[in-house]
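User: For documentation purposes, I need each entry recorded in a consistent format: the amino acid sequence on its own, followed directly by the corresponding structure tokens. There are two entries in this batch. Please keep commentary to a minimum and don't merge the entries.

Assistant: Recorded as requested. Entry 1:
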Amino acid sequence: MKKVLFLLLFSIPFFAQNKTETFDSQKLAEKRKITISLPLSYEKNTTKKYPLLLLLDGDILLDPFYGAIVYGSYWDDFPETLIVGIHQNQNNERAEDSEYEATQGLPSEKGAAFYEFIGQELLPYIENKYRVAPFRMIAGLDTTAGFLNFFLYKENPIFNAYISLNPELPPLMETRVAEQLSASKNPIFYYLSTSNDEIQQIAEPIKMLDDNIKKDLNPLVNYKFESFKSAGHYSQTLFAIPSALHQIFETYKPISSSEFTNTIAVLPSGYVDYLEKKYAKIQETLHLNLPIRINDFTAIEAAILKNKAYNELDQLAILADKYYPKSMLAEYELGLMYEKQEDYKKAMKRYQNASQMQEIGALTKTFVLEKYDLMQSKIAPKK
């Protein structure tokens, strides 16, 4: 098993679809390099749309974010994501791109131009050229982590999620960000990190920002702050990246063993309703139209059987027919319902219907025909 996992981890990069382009920016009056990392399924699944992650400091952040997302999406904990990294590691670009006015703490000169480059040039270009869902994330480190907060100053921020890794905060930002989050009328994810070993000049404003956000925490804001022990200014990033992604994509995850045991199985009823609400929340928070996973159908079926709420198998069949109309799933659920209600003739008919449809997950033609034979054996001949 360890050998298989080792091969998996080291084979993933060979399939990465990374493209480095030179973007001719009118706002910056110069050409800038960007690297676009397409999801592994991008070419095969031509109708699917993907969340967008924009990385400031793309030179150093692209690889750790890409590795975390590919690994998480392999286990279906994260959705596949389209990543765009802006190169800022030459000629002091990251400092100039993040330039701000010292008194008011607002973008100025090159910083103002870079702000407009992202919002008015780069994002429209990416969204016109690639299939991206209407869910945008932005991340940065220290200098650029402070700069990304400027996008929160707008009444309607253009990003849905902010990952601020050990930010160096411009003047007044520790107050302004908290005020903007408190006043937000739309859902926002905000992740803030630092280390216990940070210098006072950076650590104090971060602590003030954390305190100000928590004073008046908006229920629409999904906020998380972490200070990592035994980690330095840069090494904390490797701890923070997966933690931030787990925070943002928490609702995306399939039903886990603990969720089944502690939340679903103990419900007195409403198991199918729980499933529908779970996926409605994914649509609401991440703007992803995700078909219900087969394993989640199986989990809800198990909860129904455990609690003998057999009538809900009818509702589960309706949902199965909506998402997988050509598969045997809906007919199988109806057959299972009639079987548990001891109406073996109707169960036999549904299993027969299922055997003529497409296999799905663990449901095979052989399996449903065995169920058909079992129902037939339960029907006692009349004497």
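Entry 2:
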Amino acid sequence: MSLTTAQEALKIILDTSEDFGTEEVKFLKSLGRTLKEDILADRDFPPFNRISMDGIAISSEAFNKGQRSFKIEGVQAAGSKQLTMQNPANCIEAMTGAVLPKNTDIVIQYELLDIKDGVATVNLEAIKSSQNVHLKGLDRKKGDILIPKNTLISPAEIGVFATVGKMTVKVAKQPKVMIISTGNELVGVCDTPEEHQIRRSNVYTLVSLLEKLNIHAETAHITDDKELLLTKINSFLNDFDVLLFSGAVSKGKFDFIPEVLDELGVDKLFHRVKQRPGKPFWFGKKDHKTIFAFPGNPVSTFASCLKYFYPWYYKSVGINYENKNQAILAEDYFFKPDLTYFLQVKVTKEDGKVFATPITGRGSADLANLVDSDAFLELPDDRSNFTKGEVFPLITYR
């Protein structure tokens, strides 16, 4: 049976994206979520002619007639109601952020003034229209779209929500995800493993990868018992939108997951991808439930989640995501198998360029080697020799 290429696998996965609906959340709880409504300006931005430098507000007409000394008539403070200058030959001291007083149209900063006995003398021979004044509505008009829907919410968006008085915002609902490990060789993190056992780690790697997407996944462990697997997985299919498996998808005697999923009516869309690590990767759907079954080796699980689950999630919540990260191979590299290779690399930056240096590991089971790396460099499957200076896609995780 021919293998699915990495490119074909990603396309199949993206074609099965899901819409999980929307919900309203408090704006301070929306960081990292996907906005599902346009945010409009509730008034002009700025909402008044705003002073942008501390100084004096004057009439440009008086200045243009040759006047350079102005009696101070009052002080316009930020947050105070707009003053009206009574005498066009006078000035009003004006503070940054305050509204421009009536009958004035420019501000001259303190650095260009001499003030003595209540009179400000300007040391300037030319002025500009609306000098040091941020005009009302210059940035946005009332009703303008400030943030379009399907924006990934960052601290910048949080500030805009506050500015327009949006106490709650509509965001994409997160999928309900169950992360499942299998295998009799796995014990809990707090347990002391026997010589033939190892602690569960892949599920927590996946939990952390999903936490970066603000998805709070649940976890479960099932031993290599087919009937138990059938019962448990059937329950999870009813209760969750996404199942992420780690392990039991290869050709071992106790690798029951593909068989169990088939018996539960899950439609297999592919099994085995032309890649390393992660060749036994299985993917399928049942109604609106999505199943990612990653190989059990730690690096396989890690790379596959970044390569496939992340783009699927972004498309599902409406973000037009495309990995445009690239890096320059820092040294020659040779990889013989006819497979897409996710090469672990250390990333450095020099003169604005991104370089990827291969980090030698001991295969897809070498979990500790991930700590020494920053990313995966995606090498194509149609060649074996990769030359220093060539540019390839980069999948980062730091």
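Summary note for entry 2:
The mean pLDDT is 91.
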